[in-house]
Amino acid sequence: MAPFILIPGLLCDQTLWSGQIAVLEKYSAVTIADITRQSTIHEMAAHVLEDAPAQFSLAGFSLGSQVALEMMNVAGHRVKRLALLSATHGGLLPAAEAAIRHAVEMIEQGRFDQYLEEAYPSYFAARSAGDTRLKQIFVSMAHAVGQQAGVRQMRALLAIRNPFVNLDRIDCPTLIIGGRDDRRTTPEAHRRLAGEIPGSKLEILDDSAHFTPIEQSGKVADLLRDWITR
């Protein structure tokens, strides 16, 4: 079976995928891509492709989904299977764009921790608001990635002005996963993306917002296992 490459999202690291790595590594080698040093989506995609094997399966979360779609545009023939989590067909929805612009301002003003405190509820379902474990994961990942890398990633997202081209040419098995309560990438955005990729399978998860890999860790792991074995 082809190796797996998992791409984290904005201010995320390998911790995001902890619940899925344990499942996927039973089938093949798993690599977590590092997209913290580049300044554009294209540079991130080129970096991941440079280190990738000739053939691989690919999953991207949020920012990582945008990198994955750019990889499909550049070298889709190398990708055996594709999973897109908390994804749009290209760029940020208006509310998310406004939030990210505000985030850049806060971080550049030295208010990183305040930003994280304010941002947490907007990324998670209401039932997770008081979950100290999830909040600690969210904050710890952000600090591990760091403020400078976070701002670079945010600016890379803000620079996406149009949908990705050639989505209708993606012909590998494609899984799209979203949270029903996601206000950053809404269920409607996921449905639109699924409608543009022929034969893709869409899963909208209850009791979850943007961070499906940690809010619904087991369910996402099961879906990814089925994605690689079906």
Number of domains: 1
Distance between the termini: 12 Å
Query: Over all CA atoms, what is the radius of gyration?
Result: 16 Å
Order of helices and strands: EHEHEHEHHHHEHEHH
The count of DSSP E runs of length 2 or more, i.e. the number of strands, is: 6
- Largest β sheet strand count, sense and barrel closure: 6 strands, parallel
Strand content: 5-15%
CATH homologous group name:
Alpha/Beta hydrolase fold, catalytic domain
Model regions low in confidence, pLDDT < 50 over at least 5 residues: none
User: What is the topology, as strand order, of the major beta sheet?
Assistant: 2-1-3-4-5-6
Q: If classified by CATH, what would the architecture be? A: 3-Layer(aba) Sandwich
Count of separate DSSP helical elements? 10
Classify the secondary structure makeup into a structural class: alpha/beta
Model description:
The protein is globular, with a radius of gyration of 16 Å. Strand 5, helix 8 and strand 6 form a beta-alpha-beta unit. A 6-stranded parallel beta sheet has the order 2-1-3-4-5-6, sandwiched between helices. It has 230 residues and is of the alpha/beta class. The longest helix is centred in the middle third of the chain and has 15 residues. It is 48% helix and 13% strand. The chain contains 10 helices and 6 strands, in the order E-H-E-H-E-H-E-H-H-H-H-E-H-E-H-H. The protein has a single domain, classed as 3-Layer(aba) Sandwich (Rossmann fold), CATH 3.40.50. It starts with a strand and ends with a helix. Helix 2 crosses helix 3 and helix 4 runs antiparallel to helix 7.
